Every structure is written in C-alpha cells, then in structure tokens.
Fold these 2 entries.
Entry 1:
Amino acid sequence: MAESRATLAAFGVQVAPLRRRTARTYLGRVLVHPYNLLVVGSVLLLSFIGWSPLLLLLGLGAELVILCVVPWRGYFRRSIDAQLDEADRAAWSRARECLIRQMDIRHQQELARLDRLIDRTRENIRRRGGAVPLLLEDGFGLSRLLMSYIRLAIAHKAGQESLAMTNHSELMETIRSLEAIRSASAGRTRGLSERRLSIAYRRAECWSRTREGLEVVSQKLATILELIQLMHEQSMTPVDSPATCAEIDRFMRELDGFDTGESAQRELEELDMDMDRAFELEELEAEPTQHSRPMRLVAR
C-alpha cells in the first residue's frame, strides 16, 4: 500500500497518510464517541441544574475510569481498527479513481475486466476449499501489479498524445527542405538553417524514442493482462481428488456385493419353483394310477 501511495503521489494525487494506531488514537476515539459525549453532557447538565459538586465529581471520576479502561479493551480496539481501515480504503479508492480517469477509455475497460478476473480467481480458489494466497489479497502482489498497469496506461496515453501533436511526414519534409536550404545558402542564412535543422533532428529523434517507448509500454500492458488471465485459468483447472476416487471404488464394491446377493436370491427362488413343479408332476402322475386299479378289478 505504501508503494501504491508513492505511485499516486508521483502522479499528483493527494492521498491521506496512513494513521499510526497509538494509544492517543484510541483515547481520542473514546473522547469523541457518541456514548461518551452523551454521558459527559448528561452529567454536566444534571450537576449544573442541581448545583451538585458531588455529582460533577462522580461524573468526572466515571469519565476517568472510562478513559483508563475502554481504550485498552480488545473489542473496542477492533471496532476502531475496522473504522480506520474502512476510511483508508475509501481514501485509497477515491485516489485510484482519480488515476483511472486519466487513462484511455480502452485501458479503463481492460482494467475493469482485470478487476473482475481477480475477483473470480479469488472465488474459484475459495470454492475449491483452499486459502487465498497473499498474492491475491488486497494491498499485496496483484494490487501492486494493477497499480503498475494504471501507471503504464497513463504513460501510454501521454505518449499517444505526444505523437499525435507531431506530424511525422511534415517533420521529415521540413528536414529535407532545411537540408536543401543549408546546402544552397551561405553566411547568416546558413547558420540559421543549421540551427533549425538541429532542432528538427532532435524532434525526429524524440518522436522515434516516443514511438519505441509506446511499443514497450504496450507490450508490458499486454503482459500484465495475459498474466492475470493465466492465473484465472489456473484457478479454474479441475482438481482430481483421491478421496473422490476412493469413494467411487467403495460404492462400486458395495454395488457388486448387492448384485451378488440379488443373484443368489434369484437362484434360490428359481430352485424353489423347480421343486414345486416336481411335486406337482408327481401328484399328477400318482392320480391316474390310483384311478386305474379299481377299473382293472371290475373287469375281472
């Protein structure tokens, strides 16, 4: 964050300095706290209405106890730290917006896309059950990388504006005409043409350096964009969990055992059905035999 604030200061953006959290900070917060002001005001009002010095002394004693106890309590310090952090983040966001407005529209859109990619990367890592690395936390690696992107985008816009102010073809035509004048003139005219020609050479050299610098800045901007895209794509890569494979194998074994039990049950049922059919056939065969014996006796 300190490095980012230095970058903002280099671009002329005023950012409130980070406040040191000392004992005086927490004492001041206790003094201006609404509840404390309400207690102090009530005691003063009651003491003046009743002209009671004792009540005033009791109120001052209670105030001293509050000032000696409350600033050192953990819950109070955590609350004050949260408020100070929120104020610092708000100041930082306002200063960052001032810088973003100095960028080109295309780079502003790319920066908004990068912010979305970083948020999705954090969500993907949390969804997979992992801890978000410090590199992705606010104020650490990627925040500094985004500040570098903003700084480069502003420099890129300034370079483009500088190139747009110079017509390179006209400048080269001026150089050629000055060279012709220098070769054809003499005396003071030749000296003045040489001076103008020297300035034109420097302008051409500056234009070439600016164009080369723009190309370098464009490559750096593209590198930052591709790096953040790579991190986002890596966060979306599916993870093969050994526990899931073991769970699948366990269910397969239980399913095989369940199928084996069903097969054995079906075999037993089929065996019972075969035995029932056999008994029925024996009974059917036995019935004609019993009926045929009396008929033979009657015939004799």
Entry 2:
Amino acid sequence: MDRTTTPTMRAVSQETAGAPEVLRITEVRRPAPGRGEILVRVHAAGVNPADWKIRQRGVFADGTPLPFRLGFDVSGVVEETGDGVTLFHPGDEVFGMPRFPHPAGAYAEYLTAPARQFAHRPRGLTHVESAALPLAGLTAWQALVDTADVRPGQRVLVHAAAGGVGHLAVQIAKARGGHVIGTASAAKHDLLRSLGADELVDHRTRDFTEAVHDVDVVLDAVGGATWARSLRVLRPGGRLISLLPLDGTFPHEQAEAAGVRAEFMLVEPDRQGLREIARLVEDGRLRVIADAVFPWEEVAAAHALGEAGRTTGKIVLSVTP
C-alpha cells in the first residue's frame, strides 16, 4: 500500500499504563500540517527514559491522559509543508525534538509539528544516528552552554557519562574547552576517553566525592543522593544542574550555605541548539552512539532494554527502512 496517498498511517499507540507490552502498532489517521507546520515521514525515532516513564505512568507531564502515542526524537524527510513555512521544502531531511514535553508521536510513520522545532539533518549521519541526537543533545547543550556557560579550563563533572545525555555532554564540554570528569563503570572508560574525557571514576568501586574536587559544573542525570553528595565536590560559585525533577528532599539550604547554585533544568525544543549540535557533528567534534537499533515493530523490546539501564549511548527505532 502506498501510504503517501492514503489518509491513514501506522503508529505505536498505548491505551493503558503498564509494561512495555502495552505498546501496539495500530492504524490511525495520517495528520496534515497546519499553518507553520511540516509533515515529516519518519525514518527513525529515538527512545528516551521520558518515553518509558510516561508509558509506565500512563500520563504525560503536561497531563495528557491515555490513549496517546509516544516518541519525541525524530529524523525523517519533509513530505509536505503547511501555510507560511519557508525554512523547509518537500524532500528536505530534518531532525528534531518537536513539542516536548507535550505529545509529539514520533513512534509513527508520519508526524506534524512546528517547522521551527526542526533543523536540517547533520551531513554524514544516517537517520538512525540523527534520531539519537535531539533530546539528549539538546539537554546537554542547554545545560552546559545555555545554563552553565562552560568556559575553557573549567572542571566539569558529568554523572552517568556513558549514557544517552552523558556521552554527548562529555564531548560538548570538551568542545567548550572544559576539563571533563565522568562517572561510569570501568568497562566504559576506554570509550569515554576516546570521546574526550580527561578523568574517569568507576562509580561501582570508588566514591566520587573522594576522587573529585574543585569542580565548576556538575551535570547530574542520576538523581537521588547524587544531588546532595555532588555539593561536596563543587568549588564556591560552582553550579549543579539536575536533569531530574526536584523533590522535597533536595538540600537547598546546604547549597546556599556552600556558596553554590543548584537547579533543575528541563530541555526545550530549540532550532538554534539543533543547528549548533549539527555543526559540532559536521566538524568532527561530536559523535553520537546508537547502542541498540530495533525495528519499530519491536518497540516493547527496545523499552525493556532501556529500562534495564545497561545501555551505552542511545536506543533507536528504525521506522522507514
């Protein structure tokens, strides 16, 4: 069936909260781009922790209830443009993280979203690699560049440095001239050194608070007790940026008493950030790792692997061969 001329498409849908098996590929109506929007034929979609957390809870952070469709990261080809769009034309290859944290529905054959939430796909990357970049790359960029303004010579500690955000954060901090320290299991140290990490701490065998000191910026994608413990390694005036929502246990008073700044950051759609990330890729200063690629019919297996917490880099669904 030629789906480019039919009013329907296939998409991964979810009707109940629960285990990965609640995800099903169904036939749904193909969207049409509105004013300022583009219709993208999806070639690949990234899988993020936000996806399986939403699936488990059965509700988006903005309150959108079931049923819904998951997926934020996307790489694909512009199929159609809505009124007023001048940035893209049919046939353009694009990548982006549209609508986050609102539903985008990237686990589908097509999606529509505002044109200015996309950028041209980085030259030299496959669609699978491009789909691994937007959410994790923008998170690292907005944390280290827009928020922390990392500068040459500053000491940057990246927790979970081999993860989806972490492996990109290591490279972005290095591209900014930072001295990069990462926490990761010993098996991942060689990879992280090849990405530019200057110092590495095996979090399984060594307490990072004893191994690291005088840090200017901490990027925390772990949460829990890591927040409070990271305060000990910051120098006065340093910044601790968490990618996980705060709860009532976070020691705000201790951070203030230590003379440091501590805050939670939520990534936002960002065309300029995407373009900067693409430039780093094209300059050879940023490498994205797609650790596992699944045909999108195996979306449940992709979620199960992600939840196990043993991946390096990103998990990606291949939607259009």
